[in-house]
Amino acid sequence: MWLGPATLLILTMVVWPVIEMIRTSLTRVSSTGQSQGFAGVRNYTDLFAEGDLPGVLLRTLVWVVGVVTVTLVLSLGLAGLLNSRFPGRRLVRWALIVPWASSVLMTALIWRWMLNNFYGVVNRLLMDLGVLDAPVNWLAKPGLALAAMMGVAVFVSLPFTSFVLLAGLQSIPAEVYEAARVDGAGPVRGYLGITLPLLRPSLVVAAIINIINVFNSFPIIWAMTRGGPGFATDTTTTYLYKLAFDNQSVGESAAMAVVNFGLILAVVLVYLRVVRRQEDTA
Amino acid sequence: MKRHLACLAGGLSLALALTGCGKGSSSDSGGSDGRTIRFVAAKYDDDTQAYWTALIKDFESANPGYRVNLEVVDWEQMDSKVKTYVQTKQEPDILNYNKFSDFARDGLVHKAQDVVSPKVLADFLPLFRQKAQYEGTQYGLPFISSARMFFYNKDIFAKAGIARPPSTWAEVEADAKKIKQAGYIGLGLPLGPEEAQAEFQIWAMNNGGGWTDASGTWAIDQQANVDTLTYLRKLTKDKVTQPNPETTNRKDVFNQFAQGRIGMLNGAVFMRKGFIDPVDAKLNYGVAPLPSKDGSTHKTLGVQDYLVAFKKGDGSNKAAVKKFLDFFYQKENAAEFVSTEGFLSVTKSAGEVLSSDSRDAAYYKPFVDALSDAEFAPTDDPAWAAVDGAVKQRIGTAVAGGDPAKVLDEIQKTAQKGD
Amino acid sequence: MKLRTALLTAVGWLVALAFLAPYAEMLLTALKPTPELMKSPPSYLPSRWEWSNFTHIWSLTDPRVADALVFSLYVAGAATLLALAVGLPAAYYTARHSFRGRGAFLLLVLVTQMFAPTALLVGIYREMVSLDLTDTAEGLILVNAAFNLPFCVWILNAYFASIPRELEEAAWLDGTGRFGALTRVVLPLAMPGVVTALVYTFIAAWNEYVVALTITSSSNRMTLTRAIPGFVTSYHEQWQYLFATSLVSIVPVVVLFVFVERHLVSGLTAGGVRG
């Protein structure tokens, strides 16, 4: 009875669409979206025949691993900073909240605006500082654009992650540090030997939530490059959208969505297993 | 345990009550009385919604008992919206869109003759009417049109020492270099996803190329198209265009032209209203025919958008749809939309209204004249939707890293798959 | 020690600056007059401070910013309440009882967390059609509540688990009854967790874009996220209004956040430790 409403909500709003999607991936769908009967695995074979797919998969891997790793490392630093006492700490915490409170879409749009080749303030600033001689078209070259978008993805992931880690830091009792100091542990050894291991549960949670969010992230790439030029900055999430709405192959897109889910499930399970194994050996 | 249940039930009903009260004012869409229709209009700019709201009000007061439920959808969201509507059988009664042929192929839409009076049907300019047919029958109702001309900044031309707008590709290249030396962007070349298909077609058809061969079969990989891309690639490599045409959208170059940073580009009729006037109404620019390879003929690219009427179950919506469409196509109403949005008319009567009383007639005249022998995108081919998507994604890469022949080959494959 | 504090302060303020800079640029852009927006190279500050941009957005008919604000508030608020209403009992029960199916339930929650609505758009839309919920606030509320439920359950579950059972039992003995113990002892103690779940869900629903885009279409049921990109179309671009409206939508949430920031950290503490 206690679980009923929650289960019902999840079953109707999440599981139903999933089943609907799996069904679509096995259906032939015309360009107007009319269903034309059972397709077998044709949508899947079509998908795997796409020349752009390997690049998209590889990029998704770089995107997820890169963004999550950088986010976690920077957040550790930020959490440490926010946990120390200094004047204005509260204001700094509030500033950190702003990107979290803003819609990712709007944050992506302002970054696109600032990085614009013609009227972007980033180019102006870097040229005034003497770093650049001529404007750089940040979002036009695939490598540069991907790096810029990963930067934005890190930017929007930092607040939540930092707060989770900050919460973790605050749950470590002060006595633990006292004991360490008595034992003569220096600050570095104290951090590596005590703080990090105790922070581990928070790190695991932050990592999993970030992996899921970053993997599924759509608005950043969509607003900034639309996955272009060509498919050169697409990840699986934007690619499946483009398959449906630009290439007009809804069935193939549904197949991509199924593959996408398989991937994220695999990533999270592998991650959890690794974490658990380490726990067992530790 | 009972008490928990009560508490839970209380909480749930609270939540449901909260969610329930949102429905209140919502109007019922798709009435079954055959007098209520749903119209999905595309948003051209901020004035679109106001125009339709006023028109519908007039229509409803002139036809008591009839209702039109309006939805205005951004162009950028239109494709996905339309697809979800069709896929889930939630089509509006009337849709304002830029494609119609795959609806016609799948038997989803009414024939034109069934939803407008013969008078309206005869009022469409033959050129547009012909482009609204699928397998010999007219399904699309021409709505607005736009034409492309070559825009050039006269002040920049004077500074670069160029006397008249270029007519051949060689002149375009030479002038672009001069403009670059004068410190501006020579040629605005938008091959980013927004409208790459139009930009490509403009250059290709003025080189004797295009989407199909003489017999009407897809010939995207033909030599003339490869040459076109090779030429554009050279302009890009010589840096006489704006940087990275493959990711530059049309509106980016229109904006920079309005800012006086670009010497010349293929412009569209609505550029004055949407881009130039808001920024600098005094910009000193001229409008010329689109340059061609050898300078002998100058074709323009025509674009038209349509209205289509979807079939609904028993066909009970037909009478109301017809009433509304006939109302819209009255010459004053149609003319007002065209002039509000800065487009060109698709009907004779509205065209006459516009050219007789508009002080803007001088600006629009070259576009109207050019339309008489315009070429269009093959929107009447059901495979066009897929080709259009593929071109938007891929064509730009041919002037950057990719190989023109290979890029065109990929798109040709998409076209053949769609047939 | 003084040096360390000075260093920390400097770094802290730099970090704050870095996080605020894009939104400062948003504000500056929103205050520029039209002809200046696309100037190349750009100016840092507006030549004329066009404060009227902020008043003008309220008078536009398409989109109607005020209506969108109210609608967004309603959808996000109701989705948050719904998620909490179904999430609280589920979290409490799984934290207090071990029962057959508990593992299955938690697995279901975890798997749900892995789905993003973006990947399920077509399925969601088809379902909304079957339920006759397209273009309704209810549809949006249900979807938003469902996709944020996992986080609520997870954080609340951890929080309830951290409250000693003895406290609750002591309250029973005092004669408050089970329900009384729940409302008078457990819930107040769990408040930071509730606040965290509430804020998280509200923000996610407030900022949700793709589902709103897909399942609602009429202009009187337009969320702010759906309204905002409409300022920039292929035929007309009004970045100043886009950013002005963005700021209008960001400010209330930041204020809400600032009020509950303290709770947030302790709410996440339990989640982090137990998760």
Automatic annotation (TrEMBL), chain A:
Keyword Transmembrane helix: yes
Transmembrane segments: 61-82, 94-114, 144-169, 253-272
Membrane topology: Multi-pass membrane protein
InterPro entries to which the protein is assigned, alphabetical: ABC_transporter_permease (IPR051393), MetI-like (IPR000515), MetI-like_sf (IPR035906)
CDD domains given in the database record: TM_PBP2 (cd06261)
Broad class of where this protein is predominantly found: membrane
Record's protein name: ABC transporter permease
Automatic annotation (TrEMBL), chain C:
Gene3D superfamilies documented for this protein: MetI-like
Subcellular location as annotated: Cell membrane
Keywords associated with the record: Cell membrane, Membrane, Transmembrane, Transmembrane helix, Transport
Membrane topology: Multi-pass membrane protein
SUPFAM superfamilies found in the cross-reference section: MetI-like (SSF161098)
InterPro entries: BP-dep_ABC_trans_perm (IPR050901), MetI-like (IPR000515), MetI-like_sf (IPR035906)
UniProt KW Transmembrane helix keyword: yes
Record GO biological process: transmembrane transport
Regions crossing the membrane: 68-93, 105-125, 140-160, 181-203, 239-260
Ranges where the ABC transmembrane type-1 domain occurs: 69-260
GO cellular component term of the entry, any: plasma membrane
Taxonomy, superkingdom: Bacteria
CDD domains found in the cross-reference section: TM_PBP2
Record has Transferase as a keyword: no
Main localization category: membrane
PANTHER family on file: INNER MEMBRANE ABC TRANSPORTER PERMEASE PROTEIN YCJP (PTHR32243:SF18), MALTOSE TRANSPORT SYSTEM PERMEASE-RELATED (PTHR32243)
Family membership: Belongs to the binding-protein-dependent transport system permease family.
Protein name: Membrane protein
Organism per entry: Streptomyces flaveus
